[in-house]
Design brief:
Elements (H helix, E strand, L loop, with lengths): L6 E5 L6 H9 L2 E5 L10 H4 L9 E5 L2 E5 L5 E12 L2 E10 L8 H4 L5 H4 L5 E4 L1 H14 L2 H24 L10 H25 L3 H4 L1
Parallel strand pairs: 1-2
Antiparallel strand pairs: 3-4, 4-5, 5-6, 6-7
Helix pairs in contact: 1-5
Length: 211
């Protein structure tokens, strides 16, 4: 049974970042946020890309991940690097193949494969495991029964309103700057919009709201 007492948030892929999902994790908020690869994950090209770590066999050896490529070669952990952007620290782990010499799958595995350039190179990639775990958790949430319902409700209640605002009311950008002025401008617009909706409801056809 779903614990409905938990806080949750539903958003599109534009909000799917490690920083946002980490915030949800820390504050015990259940995220229903689409991954930026939500649509591409359904494609055959994505599933058949043997050069990506998520399509390789993964297991934990001596406390760390070890990958095995489609040619049976082991890619072991080499080093960790860190990056700080907008005050948020990210950790990346580098994995490299023991040897890709003579591999018959090299052309499919290497990005923009060039026979001369990649002839003596071994496969190498970086993985942010914390980010991958957070994405997998959110991805499982949105594909659950609860997540499917939340996305359906959001598309009905939210997306339609945004579309009406942008294309029918031509409200595509604010005219003021600063947080306070933007808030006031949008508040005035929302008040006017709600009054207009109430007027249409009172004097218009009910079919407008039932179709």
């Amino acid at each position: 049974m779903t614990n409905t007492s938990l806080l949750s948030v539903t958003a599109d892929s534009g909000y799917c970042s490690e920083k946002n999902l980490s915030y949800c994790k820390t504050n015990k908020i259940k995220p229903f946020i689409k991954l930026q690869t939500h649509e591409t994950q359904k494609t055959r090209k994505y599933k058949n890309n043997i050069g990506k770590h998520f399509n390789m066999n993964k297991e934990i050896i001596n406390g760390d991940y070890q990958y095995t490529c489609h040619n049976g070669q082991t890619l072991e952990y080499i080093e960790s690097t860190h990056s700080t952007k907008y005050g948020f620290k990210q950790t990346f782990k580098t994995y490299r193949s023991m040897s890709c010499l003579g591999c018959p799958l090299k052309a499919k595995c290497f990005y923009n494969y060039n026979e001369e350039k990649h002839k003596n190179k071994d496969k190498q990639f970086k993985v942010n495991h914390h980010w991958e775990d957070l994405k997998e958790e959110s991805n499982q949430n949105i594909h659950s029964d609860e997540g499917t319902m939340k996305r359906m409700i959001r598309s009905i209640q939210t997306e339609g309103t945004f579309g009406d605002m942008k294309y029918n009311d031509d409200f595509t950008r604010v005219n003021h700057r600063s947080k306070e002025k933007v808030y006031k401008e949008f508040a005035l617009y929302a008040i006017g919009r709600n009054i207009n909706k109430f007027h249409r409801f009172e004097h218009g056809s009910l079919s407008e709201y039932t179709n």
